[in-house]
Specification:
The structure is a homodimer of 369-residue chains. The first copy, chain A, is α+β, with helices and mostly antiparallel strands and 369 residues long. The radius of gyration of chain A is 20 Å and the shape is globular.
Chain lengths: 369, 369
């Protein structure tokens, strides 16, 4: 009954899933792209776009799950045909890999979204722009990540390259949001579903920079309802991250989805009774989910993004750790690159988000100094 | 500056040290006795009593530390001569390996202890018994662990075998204690020292069964003072566990020492801002120690000892996890053996020790059912 979880992708999410596997007593194996991956401790190196490689890896584990969305669906369908247990299933993953499929399905589920349209010619774009204030967001249906595959357009001409490449595209209303939220939840294959508190996410240059849990004065009931509708409607297994826009009127609109542990849930490692990484393992093994109750009233997470000059953030542990702070530093064992997600800091507070943020920021500044 | 910690011994303590290494971004390597060790994820297999093996292992890491006390001191002295960073040093470890050396040194430090004497003949034992009520505890100076190398004696005849084997022995007053406590603390090589709250430990058949944190109405000030005197006086680096007897008069007497993370500190994984495993890594790398503040007012830890009939405790995750409980289950990935430490459960409560214990016990019963 000691089960083995196989994770495709050797990034920091896989690394952080190794932790609850060690704690709970599961075996864990990782199929990583490169020798020096953050999850190398449990990794074998192999190409996740090669069926034979993935098939051999799958033969050594009880369930396959993911660190990223980049495994071709055909490969996963072939595994399913082999009888492999893939969680989430390719049927659900389609909606995390393909934004066009996602928008179509969410429309069927009556989930609130920005206005959107499928476009395949410059005229389609111009028509959408004409009815949406002359500016909109153009996205490639697949391959987008951390700001890639997304651009602001003001004319069909702005899409000439993508149209020429024959990319499947969709255009979305540029929402005049007041802030961004994320609703994390998890669902196991038996259908049990549980949500964490809705959080506020702060992006800088398209990359998540901060997460505040819980989001101050958010419509948590609507956020949870949306997440549950999506988790159930799409048949998601594991952690589901729903990124949301909050409009000036307090309305919530679905921006993006991810079906794996997500940057907006890192706070849960210390901030929740059950972390998103433990919950993901429970869910994909179809075990009962754990409590998503907070261990503290407030949590703030700051990403450690590679600064302009070389710094792995480990140089200054001494300075960061002499602070009287309850901050927790996480480093992913990555080599330095400017802008790279190298780690994160989480600070908890029973007093306020401001207090948690001040603690995290002091640690951040000490690590950089 | 990404440092590599080398751990000798592949047991559950090494396994639980891998977790903070992953979180903090340290590399970790383990020298394990066997292929299927709890720490196998980071392990190479080798004999820790073979100098060449240990030397080769030491060459791949920045600091050597331990999962157990069984590395011969001569091997560690040879490493020191090579310039290897060994923490705690063999000078300190001597006192964890040899109970006679420990008693002599603690006497110099005026640390309160049971009456004791070095004995090398049946007459020595009889003389000690005559002045201590006719019953005492005889111990081999080295090689004792979890009740081994310890016996109750009522006559010098009871020691015939150990005396014939020429074992170095000490005899100790059989303390009429009301309960057993443990004081965990950590010290880095720069001399920073920090203690966790003193805990109560409950043994069954010589093996730790439960830990209650903090110990109800204990003389925490005296316990901390004793631990600090020992940590400083013995030059300990890393986690130091001081096992204590509490007498009817409330006096604390030192029973045993360990210089590594210890069963009495497992509660700190969820129960403290900084776990004993993270603290041990910080201390042996001579980094600042982290807060030992509680994350909750009360914590109870129950050991999962292999029951009479085969059970890895993983068979019943489903039952244990449907309970409304904040219990955390830890399994060490060990094969079943009756009486073996297979894992542990920690439950936290803001209300009372009784509440934490009830939660942990409900989970324990569900896992066994």
């Amino acid at each position: 009954m000691l089960r083995t979880v196989g994770i495709i992708g050797g990034g920091q999410l896989a690394r952080m899933m190794i932790v609850p596997a060690l704690e709970l007593g599961f075996e864990v194996k990782v199929l990583a792209e490169a020798e020096k991956s953050p999850a190398k401790l449990a990794a074998t190196v192999g190409d996740h776009t090669d069926l034979q490689t993935v098939r051999e890896f799958a033969n050594t584990v009880d369930v396959i799950t993911f660190d990223h969305e980049h495994v071709p669906l055909q490969i996963l369908e072939a595994l399913i045909a082999d009888g492999v247990n893939v969680q989430p299933s390719p049927k659900a993953l389609l909606f995390a890999q393909n934004k066009l499929a996602m928008r179509k399905r969410l429309a069927e589920l009556n989930v609130p979204m920005p206005d959107w349209a499928e476009v395949s010619a410059a005229e389609d774009i111009d028509a959408f722009l004409a009815s949406h204030g002359g500016v909109a967001v153009l996205k490639t249906a697949t391959g987008g990540y951390d700001g890639k595959g997304v651009r602001i357009v003001r004319s069909g001409v702005d899409a000439t390259d993508w149209l020429a490449e024959g990319k499947a595209l969709l255009i979305e209303e540029k929402v005049n949001f007041v802030r961004e939220l994320a609703q994390l939840s998890a669902r196991n294959s038996s259908g049990q579903w549980l949500a964490w508190p809705v959080v506020q996410t702060i992006q800088r240059e398209g990359v998540c920079s901060e997460v505040h849990s819980p989001a101050d004065h958010a419509d948590s009931e609507s956020a949870a309802k949306i997440a549950e509708a999506i988790a159930t409607g799409l048949g998601v297994t594991g952690v589901l991250a729903v990124e949301l826009f909050e409009t000036a009127g307090g309305k919530l609109l679905v921006n993006e989805l991810a079906m794996r542990p997500h940057n907006s849930g890192h706070f849960s490692i210390e901030g929740s009774v059950t972390s998103q990484f433990e919950q993901h393992l429970r869910a994909v093994l179809d075990l009962p989910l754990g409590s998503t109750e907070g261990t503290s009233a407030y949590a703030v997470m700051l990403n450690l993004l590679g600064p302009e000059t070389s710094n792995t953030f480990a140089e200054n542990f001494e300075k960061a750790w002499v602070l009287e702070s309850n901050s927790h530093i996480h480093l992913y064992g990555k080599e330095y690159r400017a802008g790279r997600k190298m780690g994160h800091i989480t600070a908890l507070s029973s007093d306020s988000l401001a207090d948690a943020r001040a603690q995290a920021l002091a640690t951040y500044n000490a690590l950089l100094a």
